[in-house]
Amino acid sequence: MGREYYSQMYDLASYSFNFGQKTNKEVAKFNEISAGSWNYGYFDVKTGCLMSQVMATPFDVNLHGQVYNMIGIGYVSTYPEFRGHGAINQLMTKILQDANARDVDLSYLAPFSYDFYEKYGYRLAFHRLRYKVNNEKFRIMPTYDGVIERCEYEKIIPELLRIFNSMPQNQKGGVIRRRWWLDYKFGNKDILFAVYRNPAGEVEGYMAYEFDDEVFVIRDLGFLTYEALSSLLHFCQSHAGTFRDFVFSIGYHGTLFDTMSRDIFSTQMSICADMMARIINIQRFVSHYPFRHDFFFSFYVTEDRFAPWNTGGYQVTVKDGKAKVERVEQKGWDITGNIQAYTELFMGSRKPSELLFAKRISGNREVVEGLEDCIHTGQPILEEYF
To answer: Closest Cα to residue 167, out of 159, 23, 152, 330?
Structure first.
């Protein structure tokens, strides 16, 4: 759907997600993300009105140094009187077909129901760690020779992009931030910014934050050195006389971020299930995967209803860091599982041995353990939401 449908798209999204009062600013932001997305709609044949829609926004992601094309699924919505007619099934089928034809190998989404999207081949991949620290418990962090500067968004755009994309935790399945997305995320919003400059004047960290009544909300925190992190948190703590609580959330990578509080046991922390992922074309995805060393294995995809081109068997030969993936017909496979299990395996959200134990996959234990040593394990991390 093109620009001529933006008004209908906004009205449907607003009804489904309860946007509240319609403002020119909110409409402009919706039109901005629409312009950068593939927009799919299902129309009532009698009235010509838009009844269902799905937005697919192209991104690039960094998975352990390998860049993959990815589409983020959002604004999945249907007017209530039209639900149950299979429109979303048809739209999701078309999106995955188009993504495959355009060499897009991954898709992420934020689900309203994990069960609902599992039938489309998605699986929980990312978790989020949320903090709430009372002002009396906020640890006083040391400061260093650099300086903190409060600044306007437009003046630090290059630093925001450079620091975020350079952080190791954002290279574990995270979105590679581009200028258009940064403008959509932060531009024309009531968000404040501060940066840390080292003694040489180089920006090594930033904080995006805002005030919500008596709560100091950290919206984004990027840093390349401990000095930057400590100084930015010291800057945050300096607001303790004004704000009752400080809240912060980050992509969970398996360890607690306990730097903020001097009494970690009094800090409110919660680990929440977050976004889902799926592999769109497994042969292409595995052929680009950054394996750690030479290896040989075969695997079989048992089921992928909405991307049937994935179903079948493959033989993988990894040599000198490059994988050759061939479709083969044979009896017996080293590993067998559905597309959701392979998404968990290669994204790193669950180790192959864990999937084998939970009977999410079946196969040769020796090969499974060898594959675990050959791939990158560890929780994937995502700092974006769409």
So the answer is: 159
